Fold these 3 entries.
Entry 1:
Amino acid sequence: MLLGPHPEVYDMQAKRAQVKDGAPNPFVKPGENTSYVAGLEQDFDKQLAMQTAALQKAN
């Protein structure tokens, strides 16, 4: 279950609409946390590589 301080992070409006439509609980989605964390790790690695390259270029 992925919840956070900002509803857009976990698509709150779409999930609430699915609850109203009688679909299975959209807030329980196996693998959602793993996918979210993997995306954050990719973003971190990209930023780290960019900053490391900029630092090496400056030296």
Entry 2:
Amino acid sequence: MTDDSNIWRGIVVVDVDLVWGALDRRKSFEQTSGLAAPRLSKNLNRRRHRGANVREIAAMDMEVDCQTESLRDMFEKNLLDFSMGKAKAAKLVRDLVNSSLAEEGRDGDAKVSLVMEAIQWAEQQNLAFLRQSLQARLIRLYNDLQRFTSALELSTSLVKELKKVDDKDLLVEVQLEESKSYYSLTNVAKAHSSLTSARTVANGIYMPPRMQAALDMQSGVLHAAGERDFKTAFSYFFEAFEGYDSVEEKPDALRALKYMLLCKVMLDIPEEVQSLLSQKLALKYNGPELEAMTAIASAAKKRSLAEFNEAFEKYETELKGDLVVKKHFSSLSETMVEKELTRLIEPYSIVDIDHVTSLIELPRDRVEKKLAQMILDQKICGTLHQDEGALIVYDVAPADATYETAVKTIHAMGQVVDGLYDYAKKLR
């Protein structure tokens, strides 16, 4: 790796037997590698003398000077010195890579190089399963770094390979990441296809709650994006929220809750946002993400475009920085313009367009086009007089219930007469 004298610290989960072996070979480990030996807690040593032989968590604080040797060299020199089996070595490498990727402040290219070196080491050791799992982790890393094309290139070949070996758990994970990549590249149709394949495979095996929640989350995202079916999307987000909450994945649970609030706003029922946040499960979640959605809901409820724009400026990171919310920003903006125009013209029968333009602080051309569109969509009943620069609004007459009932009765009688006629023809 090329990091400038960075120190790589990894927290890994290992078997207690492996810990005891590491203790016994501490001296040889230091002499062989020149690395700081794992600092193991005294409690584990006491448990060894008590005969503990169950799986436990031990912290290994490995310090590696990345200027002097690469990660792959460290694997070759040190991991096999533990005299462990291939399965344990693979698990140790995987956990070491994951813990290093979880560190904050590490450059994206450095993370990619780290995983690539681990993949090369796995190939040299003929650890096919480890290589595949690391490639799946690399796909997820590409998505996190917004390198969606690279993620798709790798996932295409890996999916074919996983289907041959029938590794369904890893296949679901890769197809889910593939769906996310397609969605981010605005190819909703292929995103749906990848997600459908993942859910089909998942239906035949046991899915951990976290992975099931991830599938539900992506289903909600795609329903909101493609079909704009926010009611169904809300149901999926709710399932994802409960799933993440059950396994204490708070960041993901918070994101699911945020999307639930977004659905309420898009369904034009922003008044339900506060009641949703007051539910038992949601009470323990807070933060700027929820504050941002609450501000958007408040603006929608008041039909205030100014408050809406102010909320997006104040919470730009939480709203425009979120890919899902960002994709609905233009739709939200147009909806808020319609709400603002409706609020402004409601009390009047004749409205001066220039006056409306000054109040809403938008270009006159855009206001005229939006009013014309609202008239065509029957959202307002009126006529635009461009010569006079005015909008004439008509009162909408309430539908006559008696007339509708009479029409339905006549239609029903016609069906009865037709039925009697057909019956009479059969009697002849």
Entry 3:
Amino acid sequence: MSPSPTGSTSSITSPLCLYNEDIEHLRGPIKAQIERGLAELGAPQAPLPQWVDDQVEELINALRLVDKSAADAYKVRLGG
């Protein structure tokens, strides 16, 4: 198994593949960036609305689909 850019392992060695565990780790940083941006704009500190959580979830699901497609294409290219 080869390590991913973040240190996880996978049988797929394509640098394009994010790997599911790496994708899941994006949730916190994405939400943190949104919160920082709102704070910089002077928005009051409050929990993010549910629609933001929903949009982050949609983004993560889209990344999973892209990752799976890249992994599948890489396997085909390798003849697997």
